[in-house]
Amino acid sequence: MQQDATNSEKELSERQELTIPHLVSAKSVSETAHLTGVNRSTIYRWMDDPVFRAEYDRQRDAVANFARAGMRTLLLKALTVQAERFDSDDPKERVRVAREIIDHDAKTAANRENQKLINHLHQLIDPEEET
Q1: For residue 13, how many C-alpha atoms fall within 13 Å in the half-sphere facing its CB?
Q2: 72 near 78, Cβ under 8 Å?
Q3: What single-letter DSSP state applies at residue 12?
Q4: Are 63 and 25 in contact (CB under 8 A)?
């Protein structure tokens, strides 16, 4: 690899490529260093490298997207269970599930309102930005 290569021309070393999945899945840089045999300071230096950081971010986002997809599947199953509880012959069970749903909505309403406010502030700061 050339020292003067631009970011678009620069490629990751094999050692960097092998380190990124550990870094994405490890609990810490120290754990990654232990698992890969790469010094912690080297990993921190790599994290400042735009090419390394971009690949790390890409892999981290891919793992997060996979996890979110799994959570959506579980959420659908949970909603099915709640719907079945609503159809219970036991009126007390129907009241319990109704309360759980109302309580959950009350807890998440503040987050939705906060996100709306954040989006509005972003629009005020940069009208061209998509939210």
Answers
A1: 11
A2: no
A3: -
A4: yes
Angle between helices 40-47 and 14-25 in degrees, nearest 10: 90
Residue 112 CA to residue 117 CA, distance in Å, equals 9
**Which tokens belong to 58?**
């890409």
Other beta carbons within 10 Å of 16: 20
In angstroms, the CA 99 to CA 93 distance is 10
**Residue 93: which of 105, 84, 80, 103 has the closest Cα?**
84
pLDDT tens column, 5-53: 444 457 999 999 999 999 999 889 999 999 999 999 999 999 999 999 9
C-alpha 18/C-alpha 24 separation (Å) is: 11
Which pTM was predicted?
Answer: 0.57
Higher pLDDT, 52 or 86: 52
Residue 101, classified by CB atoms within 10 Å of its CB into exposed (0-12), middle (13-18) or buried (19+), is middle
- pLDDT recorded at residue 6: 42
